[in-house]
Amino acid sequence: MENRSHIPPHLRKIHSKLRQIINQKRFIKGTLYYLRNTCGKKNCKCAKGEKHESLYIQQTKKNKVKKSIIPRAKWDEIRQMNNRYREILKLLEQLSDYEWEHIKDKN
User: Fold this and answer.
1) Sign of CA dihedral 9, 13, 14, 18
2) Structural domain of residue 75, as residue ranges?
3) CA distance linking residue 18 with residue 96, whole number of Å
4) In a domain, 47, yes or no
5) How far apart are CA 56 and CA 102, in angstroms?
6) In-domain check, residue 20
7) How many domains is the chain partitioned into structurally?
8) What tens-digit pLDDT sequence spans the chain (107 residues)?
9) Has residue 14 been placed in a domain?
10) What is the 3-state secondary structure of 55-104?
């Protein structure tokens, strides 16, 4: 186990933020996108050109695509969860970059 005192302060902050997000917040991997379509009802606004907007989330895993429509009431929640996932990736990238820069210093 690595001694905490050997970890630079900026890396400790990254580790702390990662723990905070992972332990206390929900997150979700996926690509968010909007589709505009018609429902098929003759008297609906979409029949006159004002299409319905839907938010979807999509994920590819083991070469299989899965997607799900997100209920409008959950749009903000899912966007926040997806942003947290992206923040986790960004923080992990920073940790990895540091290790790549210092790979030869470990001997």
Assistant:
1) positive
2) 30-86
3) 13
4) yes
5) 41
6) no
7) 1
8) 455 567 788 899 999 999 999 998 899 999 999 999 888 888 888 888 889 899 999 999 999 999 999 999 999 999 999 999 999 999 999 999 998 888 876 55
9) no
10) EEEEEEECCEEEEEEECHHHHHHHHHHHHHHHHHHHHHHHHHHHHHHCHH
